[in-house]
């Protein structure tokens, strides 16, 4: 069997993190088995479709690095891959079901259905469709059609026995057929519902496996019976575990903002993770661990290394919370693995988005220290604000520029010596600065060690308690701005 899987989001908004996990698992399964990963846009619910949402979904998947073999922008032999462009196909097969007595025309209006549901609720009875139109005679149906009464097409679900859903992750799931509703397949406006379009498309696109969220388990009996009515084999089902809030209490909703136990707002959109300074490698690594395990107690791994190990049978069916603290740790680990140039290029757009223009050279100078400091790329702004803020993040005083190993007079002389050295330093790079400034520090401190001097020098240059090492900071700041800040420090020490 050729493995063919699909990710089929509805363009009703952004790509939710739970949907991203579903997409990732489908992609991994296809790549593991040498199959195809198909992207299909399920936009049959035109009222809920949001302008620009399809492109946003595509952009999010591309950012994650999940390439598709067939779908929008790629094409393929089973297109089109947008359901609104396949309406004729759905109407054809809805008619086939009518012709073969697997469906019927329902003339109930929305108001009538609403009134009957209210009455059922008041009587504490079953609130599903009462199958009223299922028993209409051919003459009654013809009479209503003759006067132009609008109708929907409903499936004739079996009413006796049970339907078994074979699930790779959960085993067989048995549902009494009495619980399966006569679902609408084709709405009165001629547009299909999800159920009809989903089954027809999966069949004609030759989908072999369906990996989807467990919220679709309730729809699976209907889908299996639709396959049976058409005389088609149904795909292999694997319903993925529910993604919970970080607290572990309740589903991570698409529409309700989630909070962790500390009351902090958490991210739910892939674009929020992207714009929040997370790396796609880290997010994929994180999501792969939500319900599945790499094994060997490894928590950090490239997704490419996970693919050969990935098996549907190893997915834990239990609901799984999203440990955002683990994501922050993973992201920091992935940042540490970045080359300095790569990190500098990654950080620059985030700084620019916040209105900070920093040269590539400056970022390259501080990149080595950024690698071990950052949890998210957005954190760089706080660490590097000395590059664009001439004001003092700390109160700079003569007292703060001295040390018990570097008393006042020694501090002044060391700063004067440092200024002279920096003004003339050639080349103006980290190694040259380190050699010269270490020597100055060693010659002016009472213990002959450079550390006390370099600490107050960094404070004078960056005016931050937390910053890159002093040599990197000086290179990033540039010669002229460094000298100006040293002049301020020297003035403070001279007037003390």
Do you know the CATH topology of the largest domain? Rossmann fold
Largest sheet: 3 strands, antiparallel
- How confident is the prediction overall: mean pLDDT? 93
Element string (H = helix, E = strand) = EHEHHEHHEEEEHEHEEHHHEHHHHHHHHH
Number-wise, the strands total 11
Q: Architecture of the largest domain, CATH level 2?
A: 3-Layer(aba) Sandwich
> Could you name the CATH homologous superfamily of the largest domain?
HUPs
Structural class: mainly alpha
Give me the side-by-side strand order of the main sheet.
3-4-7
Would you state the CATH class of the largest domain?
A: Alpha Beta
Could you name the ranges where pLDDT drops below 50 across 5 or more consecutive residues? none
Terminal CA distance = 83 Å
Number of domains: 4
- What would the principal axes of the Cα set say about the shape? elongated
Residue share in helix: 40-55%
Count of helix runs: 19
Q: What is the strand content?
A: 5-15%
The whole-angstrom Rg is: 32 Å
Describe this structure in words.
It contains 19 helices and 11 strands. The model has no long low-confidence stretch (mean pLDDT about 95). It has 4 domains: about 85-240, Rossmann fold; about 270-335, Glutamyl-trna Synthetase, Domain 2 (Glutamyl-tRNA Synthetase, domain 2, Orthogonal Bundle), CATH 1.10.1160; about 340-385, Helicase, Ruva Protein, domain 3, CATH 1.10.8; about 400-495, Orthogonal Bundle (Arc Repressor Mutant, subunit A), CATH 1.10.10. Helix 12 (about 340-355) packs across helix 13 (about 360-370). Helices cover about 45% and strands about 10% of the residues. The relative contact order is 0.08. The protein has a 3-stranded antiparallel beta sheet with strand order 3-4-7. The protein has a two-stranded parallel sheet with strand order 1-2. Strands 5-6 form a two-stranded antiparallel ribbon. The chain has helices spanning about 15-30, 55-65, 85-100, 110-120, 140-145, 195-205, 220-230, 270-275, 280-290, 305, 325-335, 340-355, 360-370, 380-385, 410-425, 430-445, 450-460, 470-475, 480-495; strands at about 5, 35-40, 105, 150-155, 160-165, 175, 185, 210-215, 235-240, 245, 320.
């Amino acid at each position: 069997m050729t493995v063919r899987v699909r990710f089929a989001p509805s363009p009703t908004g952004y790509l939710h993190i739970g949907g991203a996990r579903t997409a990732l698992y489908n992609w991994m399964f296809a790549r593991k088995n040498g199959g195809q990963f198909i992207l299909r846009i399920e936009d049959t619910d035109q009222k809920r479709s949001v302008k620009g949402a399809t492109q946003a979904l595509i952009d999010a998947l591309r950012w994650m690095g999940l390439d598709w073999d067939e779908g929008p922008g790629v094409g393929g032999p089973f297109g089109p891959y947008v359901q609104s462009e396949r309406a004729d196909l759905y109407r054809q097969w809805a008619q086939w079901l009518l012709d073969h007595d697997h469906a019927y025309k329902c003339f109930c209006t929305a108001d009538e259905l609403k009134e009957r549901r209210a009455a059922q609720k008041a009587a504490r009875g079953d609130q599903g469709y009462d199958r009223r139109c299922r028993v209409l005679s051919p003459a009654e149906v013809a009479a209503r059609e003759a006067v132009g009464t609008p109708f929907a097409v409903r499936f004739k679900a079996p009413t006796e026995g049970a339907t078994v859903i074979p699930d790779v992750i959960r085993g067989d799931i048995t549902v009494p057929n009495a619980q399966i509703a006569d679902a609408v397949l084709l709405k009165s406006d001629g547009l299909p519902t999800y159920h009809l379009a989903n089954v027809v498309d999966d069949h004609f696109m030759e989908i072999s496996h369906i990996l989807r969220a467990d919220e679709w388990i309730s729809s699976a009996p209907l889908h299996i019976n639709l396959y049976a009515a058409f005389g088609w084999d149904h795909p292999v089902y694997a319903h993925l575990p529910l993604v919970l809030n970080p607290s572990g209490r309740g589903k991570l909703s698409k529409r309700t903002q989630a909070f962790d136990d500390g009351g902090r707002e958490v991210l739910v959109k892939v674009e929020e993770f992207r714009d929040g300074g997370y790396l796609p490698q880290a997010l994929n690594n994180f999501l792969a661990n939500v319900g599945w395990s790499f094994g060997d107690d490894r928590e950090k791994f490239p997704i490419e290394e996970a693919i050969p190990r990935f098996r549907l049978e190893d997915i834990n069916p239990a609901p799984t919370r999203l440990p955002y603290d683990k994501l922050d740790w993973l992201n920091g680990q992935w940042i540490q693995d970045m080359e300095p140039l790569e990190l500098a290029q990654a950080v620059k757009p985030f700084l620019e988005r916040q209105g900070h223009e920093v040269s590539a050279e400056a970022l390259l100078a501080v990149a080595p220290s950024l690698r071990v400091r950052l949890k998210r790329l957005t954190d760089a702004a706080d660490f590097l604000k000395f590059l664009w803020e001439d004001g003092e993040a700390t109160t700079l005083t003569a007292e703060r520029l001295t040390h018990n190993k570097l008393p006042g007079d020694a501090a002044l002389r060391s700063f004067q010596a440092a200024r002279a050295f920096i003004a003339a330093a050639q080349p103006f790079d980290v190694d040259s600065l380190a050699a010269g400034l270490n020597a100055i520090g060693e010659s002016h401190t009472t213990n002959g060690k450079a550390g006390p001097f370099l600490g107050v020098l960094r404070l004078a240059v960056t005016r931050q308690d937390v910053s890159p090492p002093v040599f990197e900071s000086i290179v990033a700041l540039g010669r002229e701005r460094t000298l100006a800040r040293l002049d301020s420090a020297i003035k403070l020490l001279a007037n003390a």
